[in-house]
Design a protein that fits this description.
Elements (H helix, E strand, L loop, with lengths): L1 H19 L7 H19 L6 H16 L5 H21 L10 H23 L1 H25 L3 E3 L3 E5 H22 L4 H32 L14 H24 L7
Antiparallel strand pairs: 1-2
Helix pairs in contact: 2-3, 2-5, 3-5, 4-5, 4-8, 4-9, 5-6, 5-9, 6-7, 6-8, 6-9, 7-8, 8-9
Length: 270
Amino acid sequence: MWQRIKTAVILIIIVGIALFASRTPVLFAPLLAIGVIIAAHEWTKLMPKWRQPAVFVLLTLVITLTSLMLPVTWVVWWAMSLVIWLMALSWVRKFPIHTHWYGRKLGLMGVVILTAAITAMFYLWQQSAWWLLYVFLMVWCADSGAYFVGRKLGRRKMAPNVSPNKSMEGLAGGLVTGLIVVIAISVFKLQLTGVALVAFIALSALTILASVLGDLFESMLKRRAKVKDSGTILPGHGGVLDRIDSLLSATPLFALGFWGLQHLGLLVVS
């Protein structure tokens, strides 16, 4: 437990400095690049045996960094990842009866998922580091709420073949916990009203639900690949994918909705 806490504290310090120390990407961009390299390497462990994992890692890194320099492509990446996550919802429900998704196509899906998440994080950070922190906070609070409520009241299993410890009661608890944070920030900090308030809360609720799907999807991959953790680089936590699985699905969805609300004039970023 103490090892887990120490690792979490170190991660918070590193991420906090990268987010807020400079408005230029001199610290944040390298952190994203390192994250992509490690996450892509871990992704190869969850796929059918890959003969040259270094090639996949390098390809993912090049595509992601190139995409970061081409903002016009970002919405396309987010939309493509949304399609994958919608399909993943069906895969999680049907696991382990149907596993046709497990194959070389996971390589392509990995590139899309990682590129979409990284460009979404960079986009939100460009708007303001606080927007990216908002997504982190929302997902973390929902995850904590789901854990404690599920542990105390959990009865009905959400996806027993994928993650036996997750329950529908925990999902409800996580959603309520996350929405308390969302509503408080929406009303008192952002001072949203009317349609803008409803749209922003709806987007945030969908983001919380998407974060749960990201967690379940990675759990399903690990079960199919017969591994406990995606890696061992984070003592007490496992791998990078184990820590960001919820964010892989949550950040592209929130970024896409955030972008849409801005273009509709429902959300003004100062």
